[in-house]
Amino acid sequence: MPQDVVGSASFPISPQQKHAKLDFLQVPPVSSYCSSSIIEFDGASKGNPGPAGAGAVLRTADGSMVFRLREGVGIATNNVAEYRGAILGLKYALQKGFKHIQIQGDSKLVCMQVQGLWRTKVQNIAELCKVAKELKDQFVTFQICHVERDLNTEADAQANLGIHLKNGEIQVECDIQKPEGITA
């Protein structure tokens, strides 16, 4: 049964989850009980422009499932990396069948431009914004909000790991927990 997304999108990770063995690139499909997701996104660039990475974390509304994503962005600015993190999360959420999305990141630029509240002045940023808007239109419900950096640490960690990947290379970690009352 889908739940409305309310409140903070930061979920604590239990000590067991922190040390769990995570499988890369072998991600099971999302079950039919789950249609809402919270996406946390971030980007990192060492040099601005410099080696860059994108990161995203997907969580169900009840916190029972976690996908950690990272992508190499090549040489890019932090704004490009931020957009790539948002796009990475949105694409993955669509691929996994999520219908209701709340997305958050510490890039005010991305959040305001995707909402249409700020203009895009640079061509490559305008193109990335267009992609993000096209993706958002594919969800039944969509909400984007800016959060402070200290509420975005997991996505930040994924973006910094993405710096070490080749441009376009994506890594996925999953940690799936079944909610109470759901049987296999």
Automatic annotation (TrEMBL):
CDD domains: RNase_HI_like (cd09279)
GO molecular function: nucleic acid binding; RNA-DNA hybrid ribonuclease activity
Limits of the RNase H type-1 domain: 33-164
InterPro entries: RNaseH-like_sf (IPR012337), RNaseH_domain (IPR002156), RNaseH_sf (IPR036397)
Stored Gene3D superfamilies: Ribonuclease H-like superfamily/Ribonuclease H (3.30.420.10)
PANTHER family, A to Z: POLYNUCLEOTIDYL TRANSFERASE, RIBONUCLEASE H-LIKE SUPERFAMILY PROTEIN (PTHR46387:SF40)
UniProt name for this protein: Uncharacterized protein Mb2253c
